Each structure stands twice: as structure tokens, then as C-alpha cells.
Amino acid sequence: MAQKKTRGLTPEFREAAAREVVEKSRPVADVARDCGVTGQAVRNWVKVYRAVRAESTELTSDERKRLHDLEKENRKLREQMEFLGKASAFFAARYQ
């Protein structure tokens, strides 16, 4: 099957293809086949897409600390929920 040249493709098209790989976890080969381009072309687009997103999503040190604190709190709450679920199952079984 003949492959299209990638020069004539719009930046929007390239970004949409890269988004399919990054955000929807589609295999590069599938996206490349659907777009009619090589897998290497899609991998290049993904690299550019990730680089652009990384620049715009860098966290400040305060944001990193807040994120770390929230992740720690989230883990603690999950552990508590798991414990409460087990405790409620224990008492439900015991008093039936």
C-alpha cells in the first residue's frame, strides 16, 4: 500500500493523530495505517505533541508540594475506605 507524503498534512491533522496515541492509547501502527502514513511519522508527531504539552503543564514547586500532599491524603482515604468496607462486611456477616 502506498503511503501518503506527510508534508501536505495540516498541523491540526498531525495533532489529532498524536492525540489518538497519547490520550486514547491507540497503537502507533493502527493510527499510522488509518492516516495513511508511516509509523515513524506518527511517532515524530507524538514526540512533538508531548514536548508542547510538557512545556505548558510544568508545575511550580508549590503546585508540586500540593499535589504530593493531595496524593498522600488520597492514599490515606483509600486505606480508610478499604478498612471500613471490610469492617462493615464483617459486622454484616456476624449479625445475620
UniProtKB/TrEMBL annotation:
Keywords: Coiled coil. It comes from the Bacteria. Transmembrane segments: none annotated. Residues 60-87 form a coiled coil. InterPro entries: Homeodomain-like_sf, Transposase_8. The keyword Magnesium does not apply. It holds the Pfam family HTH_Tnp_1. The keyword Coiled coil applies. This is Transposase.
